[in-house]
Amino acid sequence: xxxxxxxxxxxxxxxxxxxxxxxxxxxxxxxxxxxxxxxxxxxxxxxxxxxxxxxxxxxxxxxxxxxxxxxxxxxxxxxxxxxxxxxxxxxxxxxxxxxxxxxxxxxxxxxxxxxxxxxxxxxxxxxxxxxxxxxxxxxxxxxxxxxxxxxxxxxxxxxxxxxxxxxxxxxxxxxxxxxxxxxxxxxxxxxxxxxxxxxxxxxxxxxxxx
Length: 210
Prior knowledge:
- 33% of the residues lie in helices and 29% in strands.
- The chain has 210 residues and is of the alpha/beta class.
- Strands 3-2-1-4-5-6-7 form a seven-stranded mixed β-sheet, covered by helices on one side. A three-stranded antiparallel β-sheet has the order 8-9-10, with no helix packed on it.
- A hairpin with a 2-residue loop joins strand 8 and strand 9.
- The chain is globular.
- The chain starts with a strand and ends with a strand.
């Protein structure tokens, strides 16, 4: 059975969606731990209530990003994860950390990458006059908000949309797409190879994104 570790910084609604889908759909996996860089992250209580190990590695306790990432990586490794899921984890990770979990580290970003990397994605999409917006699940690489794309979901940008209304509509799609993408990984339906995502459906491997 595969082991999933999820990193959060706050409420962790995508974490909740993954935990619930894993249990309801009978994945060949379980969520071994939820880890936060913030002791007050609400998602830790959700994990504890479901018998999942809830750990804190407080970034404020470390002098620099390198030492924090080393401590975080050491904590993650105690759970021997097959996949490490970033679910609202609001820290920029060092190259060393990303390389430590290369091919096992995934993230969801609230835009249709490669558009609107970084912060304030929904505001920027509205200001740019986009007719559609969405979210992207991708393997994490050293370049921020890049890396081979696993899945994308789109929603229309409505004339009356605000940053908040668009964000809420995109989040609904994240809660559907992210668990599905993690399930594909733990079931061995896809891997990252040669800089792209490779599917393994029907015994045939095929590069689907790069």
